[in-house]
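Side project, low priority. Logging it here so it doesn't get lost.
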Amino acid sequence: MAESKNNPIDDMTKRDSPPPGSDPQRPSPELLLWAYRHTLFPMNDPWEDTIEWYSPDPRAIFPLEPPEAFHVPKNIARELRKKPFEIRSDTAFEQVMRGCATDRGWFNRTWITRHFIDVYTELHRRGHAHSVEAWREGQLVGGLYGVHIGAAFFGESMFSRPDLGGSNSSKICLVHLVRWLRTRGFALLDTQFWNEHLDQFGCVEIPAEEYAGMLHDALKRDVTWGEFKAGAQ
């Protein structure tokens, strides 16, 4: 499991000054954008009800190049060919966040608070956050969301609703996300931490210093999200 270190605002100032008046326990859109540009991201501790700031070392990413670096498992490839879902982007961003915020049991409490939903939805309105969604028979059955700055996409969370016919929907959304990022010319897909679920798709860990260099290069480029087309290569 990746080793992580907490980075409260007073420690973050060692790198650069955050926006004036920033509150690490109630982050604004400006603070979030500043943090992502400085390798940081927040998560709420559901047990302590406090927001912690992380900059993992090593850092987990999905390499976008070469194409074969991202692996589509055989069962997901079969599902993709069946086209079981209508795949959209940015038509239900807040709904996707609410789906991701659902508790998955006593020992898997959500880190996504009401304030997070509000502030990331505001980033979405400003064009700095996007969702990829799986729909079936008019219902949202899975999806993912993340933050977009320059040529970097910071994946945040995903969910699926098997009870609504959405089995593997989040994984299929991930495949479409990677295809779209390549189509648009993105250079970095950050996944924060490695886990076995992501490993099957080719998630790798890299040193924090290498990640910082990749992020620096990605932030220098202006890449737009564009008009999303499912299945783009």
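Brief comment: The chain has two domains: 9-54, 59-219.
Revisit when time allows.
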